[in-house]
Amino acid sequence: MYFSRNDIDQLDHIYKINLINSITGYKPANLIATKSKAGITNVAVFSSIVHYGSAPPILGFVLRPTTVRRHTFDNIIETGYYTINHINEDIIEDAHHTSAKYPQDISEFNQTKLEEEYKNEFYAPFVTQSAIKIGMKFLQQLEIEANGTILILGEITDLYINDTLIEKDGFVDLMKANTAVINGLDTYAIPTKNKRLTYQRPNK
Amino acid sequence: MYFSRNDIDQLDHIYKINLINSITGYKPANLIATKSKAGITNVAVFSSIVHYGSAPPILGFVLRPTTVRRHTFDNIIETGYYTINHINEDIIEDAHHTSAKYPQDISEFNQTKLEEEYKNEFYAPFVTQSAIKIGMKFLQQLEIEANGTILILGEITDLYINDTLIEKDGFVDLMKANTAVINGLDTYAIPTKNKRLTYQRPNK
Questions:
Q1: Which 8-state DSSP code applies to residue B47?
Q2: Core-most of A159, B3, B119, B136, by most CB within 10 Å?
Q3: How does residue A67 score in pLDDT terms, banded at 50, 70 and 90?
Q4: For residues A127 and A133, is the Cβ–Cβ distance under 8 A?
């Protein structure tokens, strides 16, 4: 099937967002958790976390500040801290439910079985059920002129990984954790077979 | 296992890049293909493609212009066009081989079984084997001050999807295409079970 740019622009809204959100491939499935200055926690599903560098360790994610994820954005700007927590098979339904539009004074931790936990005096809550939990310090926001979305960059300050997942060379085997991926806006999938390849050099 | 920021900064280089590249979760597996003004094609694996908006349809990806992916960057800036092509199970080895450091005058299309194809007079080549192929027009580059990486934003001009993958509401079922994901720097996985959830509203 072929869609020209003109075809895409004229698609029905729901069809368009399902289509364009599917075509980047599977997306990482994470929960971002924050706490406002007033002490109200927030947790929301995000599929746009990206590695920006290892030294220093920098991760980015994208949000549209006019959506429900506004609470995440406000808390990060207000406090400077947030956590990134992996979604695994056991918490898919609860993780997806965080996309419902709750008012600011209701914590999604109280509306789901997701549990908040505090470690090493880090300000924002971690999600207990996640096999990988990352404490993040806000670095910078970059506004994308073309459509008003915002890229949030942060640096890793704390990293917790279940012991059984890490191999001798630092590789973390996500299949052992039943880590999920997101397809489009509302579908979650689980990889069940994988293959590790080698460092590639040019053919002779 | 706990890593403080100081622990991370002091890790051995290989351990560190394996670790930090694994912890964002599974990443989308795509090939970006370009052609220089001089007519030399290039194709390289990228795991950082992200959706930035559906109306207009904008995608972004991250690169470090000092690496092998320099050729992709140069061709995009020089010509204004590139394609994004999904990696499926059948082409994992060839896709991964594009990470080898070939000189600019050698096309990875000639060093692998990946096939280039041209459609609708679009300047850059598409990858024949990909079930989803996206023609992209360069919009903007944003340099990340913290580490010199570059976010490249582009808009979709052409979109090709195998007919059997699209559902009535625009959702594209990536599992039907055996679409791959990337874990860390060198491991490819295939999702084999998925679940579509509904639009979420707050609990009463």
A1: S
A2: B136
A3: low
A4: yes
Using an 8 Å CB-CB cutoff, list chain B residues near A22: 170-172, 174
Written as six digits, the tokens of A92 are: 């898919």
Q: Please check whether residue A149 touches B, CB under 8 A.
A: yes
Domains of chain A and any CATH numbers: 26-189 (2.30.110.10)
CB A125 within 8 A of CB A32: no
Mutate which of A30, A51, A133 to test chain B, going by most B C-beta atoms within 10 A? A51
**ipTM of predicted complex:** 0.96
pLDDT value of residue B69: 67
Q: What is the pLDDT of residues B78-99, one digit of tens each?
A: 999 999 999 999 999 999 999 9
| Contact yes or no for A196/A174 (Cβ under 8 A) | no
Q: Two tokens at B135? A: 């023609």
Quick check: A134 and A84 in contact, CB under 8 A?
Answer: yes
